[in-house]
Amino acid sequence: MVVVDVRNIDMGITNVHVEDGNFRGMVNVDEMLVGWNDDSTTKKLFDMCSTYKTGIDGTSDAINWSLETKPLYDPNYNTNTHVTDIWVMHEGSSDKTMTCDYWDNKNTTDGSTTYTSIALSTDFTLSTPGIKRNRLLPTTAQLQNSDIYKFKFSGTGYRKFHGLQVNQITFGEMV
Known about the structure:
With 175 residues, the protein is mainly β. The chain has 2 domains: 2-49, no CATH class; 65-170, Jelly Rolls (Sandwich), CATH 2.60.120. It is built from 1 helix and 13 strands. The protein has one helix at 51-54; strands spanning 2-5, 15-18, 23-29, 32-38, 43-47, 64-68, 72-73, 81-92, 97-104, 116-119, 132-136, 148-156, 159-170. The longest helix has 4 residues, at 51-54. The termini are far apart.
């Protein structure tokens, strides 16, 4: 698993963590980010964006992938806070897939993290290369009155995220 910490990206700082005891860092080879593994006898470079793994070339079997966002939580949210829409900016291979699910704590009493679909693969279809913006509109039963929620994106093949924006509306009595 590769974890990219971009909390300080506006200051030019990006930290990469890998769950591998032998991992020694990241290097840039021919404009591609690769991982460097040193097992004391040999040095190996692992391509983090190979066409074999991503399926960019359209001939290889792309791997399945998924990522979860950090839970959004604010103790001041109340029953009058609703998610109005979600914008996703992405690009990738036109023949690969991506879906979006969400989890919220409204009906959770046992700590379950069961996800509910909010967007199917057809919602993210890429007919031409380039960045695409998708607007996801939750139904009245989705992401309403939630003080904590998170998203999970999953699919197959190459997909690059450029942004995720969640818009909310809060209404009710002013104090």
